[in-house]
C-alpha cells in the first residue's frame, strides 16, 4: 500500500522512531527490530525508520504506521541507500518512504539524485526522504524531486560542524526557505527537550533512534556519568 499525502501530513508534530542495531550486536535480528518498532508504536510513535530489507519486511508486518526504509552499504561517504538498485530493493521490501543519501556528493552508481528519485517514483510509487547535510543539499534535493527532507547527515559531510545536539541552525535555515516539503529533524536528538527544540526551530517531525532503541549506547551514557574510583 502506497502512502498518501494525507498520511504523510499526519506525521507533522509527531515522533518517528528509528529502530536499528549495528552488525554483530545481539539485537541485530529483523524479528527483534520489528518488536522494537512495535514497542515504539505502542508508546506513540507515528512512524518507524528501519535499516535492511528483512527489517523492512518484518516491520511492515508488525506495525500499521508508515515505514521509512533504508539500506546501509559501508560506513563512509555515500552509504545510506547509495544506489538506485538499493533504493528499488528498499521500496520492493515494503517501505512507504525510501530514505537515501540526499547530499550533492557523487553516487556510487554514477546516477544523479534526480534520476534516482524519478525512477523510484515511476517504478514503485514510494515516496523519497533525502537525508541532507546542509541547506544547499536540501534545496538540491527539492529540485531533484524529493518528497521529504531530513537533517540526518548534518555534521557528517564536512559542510557543517557536528553539533552536540540537533543542528537547530540548519533546521531553521531549511524551514525559512518554505520548500513545501516535509522537514524531518534527525541526528543527535537524545532528550525530549531536544526533540521539542527541533520542532520549535521549524521541523515538521522528529526522528529519534539511539536514545530510544539502542541500549548499548544508552547504558554507556549512564556508565560514563558515574564517578570512577581508583
TrEMBL record:
One of its GO terms (biological process) is carbohydrate metabolic process. It holds the Pfam family NanE. One of its GO terms (molecular function) is N-acylglucosamine-6-phosphate 2-epimerase activity. Pathway: Amino-sugar metabolism; N-acetylneuraminate degradation; D-fructose 6-phosphate from N-acetylneuraminate: step 3/5. Converts N-acetylmannosamine-6-phosphate (ManNAc-6-P) to N-acetylglucosamine-6-phosphate (GlcNAc-6-P). InterPro entries: Aldolase_TIM, NanE, RibuloseP-bd_barrel. This is Putative N-acetylmannosamine-6-phosphate 2-epimerase.
